[in-house]
């Protein structure tokens, strides 16, 4: 999907990639799989609501898109752990909640 504004996007059960070759990128794939896990835990729709609300709160707080995006709890969990390819097998249920404490 060349028009995709990001490298990858997890829209359970679909994984959109900007370029096919990104499928070989283990870290990117792991990042998106972490989002899949978060989405399943929150029964999909609530995930998007929380994701968007968290983004809006961050945007008000930081006045900066990139900073608002990177500080979404779901992105924090994904970015901090996507280089650990065994993260998903070690992760506890709702692992993203540990990042809630670090919001403030
Ligand atoms: Zn992400």
Describe this structure in words.
With about 100 residues, this protein is mostly helical. The chain has one domain. Helix content is about 50%, strand content about 10%. The protein has 5 helices and 2 strands; from the N terminus they run E-E-H-H-H-H-H. Strands 1-2 form a two-stranded antiparallel sheet. The longest helix has 18 residues, at about 45-60. The N and C termini lie far apart (about 35 Å). The mean pLDDT is about 95. Bound molecules: zinc ion. Zinc ion binds near residues 31, 35, 75 and 78.
Q: What is this structure, in a nutshell?
A:
With 104 residues, this protein is mostly helical. It is built from five helices and two strands.
Keywords:
104 residues; mainly alpha; two-stranded antiparallel sheet; 5 helices; 8% strand; globular; binds zinc ion
